[in-house]
Amino acid sequence: MAMEVCDASISYANEHLDEVGSALLPRSTWCPWHSKLTREVSAP
């Protein structure tokens, strides 16, 4: 698998959830190259 296939923005992935696991984010692996972690959100 090429690294480019796991790169997607949060909004793009959210808009195409029905495609996650196939051509978009194969094996449901997400590696957002342009994202930056700013804080951790606690579980509800």
List keywords for this structure.
two-stranded parallel sheet; little secondary structure; about 15% helix; about 45 residues
End-to-end separation in angstroms reads 34 Å
* Average pLDDT score: 83
How many DSSP H or I helices? 1
Strand order across the largest sheet = 1-2
Helix content: 10-25%
Please state the structural category.
Answer: little secondary structure
Beta-strand level of the residues, as a percent range? 5-15%
Low-confidence stretches: none
Summarize the main sheet: 2 strands, parallel
Count of β-strands:
2
Choose one word for the global shape.
Answer: globular
Radius of gyration: 11 Å
Q: Report the order of strands and helices.
A: HEE
Describe, in plain words, how this protein is organized in 3D.
- The chain is mostly loops and 44 residues long.
- The chain is built from one helix and two strands.
- It is globular.
- The protein starts with 9 loop residues before the first helix and ends in an 18-residue tail after the last strand.
